[in-house]
Amino acid sequence: MKIVMIGAGNVATNIAKTLANIGETPVQIWSRTLASAETLANAVGTCATSDWDSVVKDADVYIVAVKDDAMLNVIDLLCAHCKHGVFVHTAGTMTMSMFTGKAEHYGVLYPMQTFSKQKEVDFRTVPCFVEASDKHTLDIIMELARLLSDNVRELAESERKWLHIAAVFSCNFANVCNAMAAQILERHGLSFDVMLPLLDETVAKLHRLHPREAQTGPASRGDVEVVSKHIAMLEDNKELSEVYSVLSNYILKNRE
User: Fold this and answer.
1) Cα(144)–Cα(105) distance, rounded to whole angstroms?
2) For residues 165 and 69, what is the distance between their CA atoms, to the nearest angstrom?
3) Could you give the dihedral angle defined by the CA atoms of residues 199, 200, 202 and 206, in that order, rounded to the nearest 10 degrees?
4) For labeling, which of 59, 81, 174, 211 is most exposed (least CB within 10 Å)?
5) What is the Cα gyration radius of the chain?
6) For 119, which DSSP code?
7) Which InterPro entries match (predicted)?
8) Distance between CA atoms of 204 and 238, rounded to whole angstroms?
């Protein structure tokens, strides 16, 4: 499969490296800045460009993995320069209709995982959700997705958007809570490393229990005295105090 990667960020890096590892190295990496394109291209052994006129015109698939706020403009420029092949974006919340009227065959390949350039994931375990403009295109995107992952399924846009919201709660909001925990620890001369066994056990329990059943802590016990003490301890940091209060009130109202 002849693949062009549009983008060189976290998602693009992990997809390109995974494809390279299985002998399906993208024939080209495009990025807004040539330096970014070259960094990824050098890592996977392919060529780079930041010039739309130089983008390969006869690829089988163009994978658009860029920031959501740049995607529409990138798609417009890509489809103006490349008229053939299947066009795919990787965003959880963006509609595939962004390609409508610009490309004949298009769709979405959304890998639901947290990606960083600095750490490669085992893509075979990443759930990939696929949507396509037609049956022929669906078959091609499914083939691409199965090169990457053993966990591939078709999912409509309406469901995918809710999936993405849930992922933000489960991953992004959970991590920012860890960032707040690190802030508290560092302020008092403690290392975040001490939290890692707690986090490991928290995630391990979720493989066996529903999140409601796995909930522990003062609010889940209805211990409002401890909750109040913690909020008072955070009174010099309004943001942390407000977050603690909102989350504790939610747990108190919804505890079983």
Assistant:
1) 14
2) 17
3) 140
4) 211
5) 22
6) B
7) 6-PGluconate_DH-like_C_sf, DUF2520, NAD(P)-bd_dom_sf, P5C_Rdtase_cat_N, TM1727-like_C_sf
8) 32
- Superfamily designation of domain 3-155: NAD(P)-binding Rossmann-like Domain (3.40.50.720)
pLDDT for residue 256: 65
Q: What is the pLDDT of residue 255?
A: 82
Name the amino acid, one letter, at 240.
Answer: L
β-pairing verdict for 61-64 and 86-89? parallel
Residue numbers of the chain with a pLDDT score lower than 70: 256
Q: Report H helices in the chain.
A: 10-21, 34-44, 68-81, 135-148, 157-167, 174-187, 196-206, 211-214, 218-221, 224-233, 238-254
Q: Which CATH superfamily is domain 160-254 in?
A: ProC-like, C-terminal domain (1.10.1040.20)
Q: 229, 241 in Cβ contact below 8 A? A: no
Q: How many CA atoms lie within 13 A of 155 on its CB side?
A: 24
Burial 169-189 (b: 16+ CB within 10 A, else e): eeeeeeeeeeebbeeeeeeee
Separation of first and last alpha carbons in the chain: 52
Strand order from edge to edge, sheet including 105-111: 47-49, 28-30, 3-6, 61-64, 86-89, 105-111, 128-132, 152-154
Neighbours of 142 (CB within 10 A): 18
